[in-house]
Amino acid sequence: MTHSGIQLGVPEDLSRLAVVENAGRGTDVDLVVQLLRQDLVVLARNVSAEQVDSVMHGITDRLSLSDALELQAGFAGFLGLRHNIGKYFMSVSERGDYQFIAPHCEGTTFIGIQLASFFCYENSTDGGATILMNVDDSSKVWPSLRERVRRGKLAGRPLARHEILRARALYQLNLPADGLRDDDRILQESPSEIPGLTVVDVLAKPEKAYSRILERKLNAYWFSIESIDLDSVREYASMLRQCGLLKEPHGGLQVHEMDPAAQGRIWHSGVDYAQLFKCKITLRLVPGDLVIQNNLTWTHAASNWSPGSGTRNIAAAFA
Q: How many domains does the chain contain in total?
């Protein structure tokens, strides 16, 4: 079921949503893959909790992403922020009262997650809409954006092969490609366990990533771009309010009080959602709904809800 809110800024475009009915016969994974290659969002309906893992495995197998699906599921509880639900799915990010999740592509340039999916167990709140936004890869705003990334600063010598492998494992650095650049804005520096290597967190110009689904390079609005930007969350709160989706207590709240990522936002990009995104799809998921999308071309987000109005139980899988 979709929300027919006010169309302002980023237009609603349900022609970009492909609905696939399960109807007890199982989900046609070949059809899902075909639709994903057209850069459509796929909504598979009436999928059971017992079926959803096999559906995801079938889709990722045809896209040669099944190893990535298992890898991401294995990382679900690694940092203690999520927990596994079934074989491949995991809990979504925790949030406090009236908090929402702003639109982002899951992960970072380094991780390069290709596919995102969301399965609804329950959604009985007075909000909790799922909002998917199609990234405009050719937008003129990309040069003004920055991504928080990790760089390596070398002092006087190249690293040996075993040191390069160790830097990748310990610090998620692909050296020498991830060496410090002249136009990086340094945020902080830390010594490493590798002699001559300093680990540096910087604001860097975003780089295009290769989409294995569409077989081309494009700009992705990674979490590591969105979550540092004060203007992005303000744009999102404004959009929710205009569409009648923002829930607030009597007297209202400041935007930062509704934002779980508030502490990490450190700069102003001046981003305009109307320039960054081509369109959006707003869904109120019901039990048995499975959403599948290209993680590089579509961001995902969620509106907030009034405390005590119900339960929202959505699980996510990434590959």
A: 2
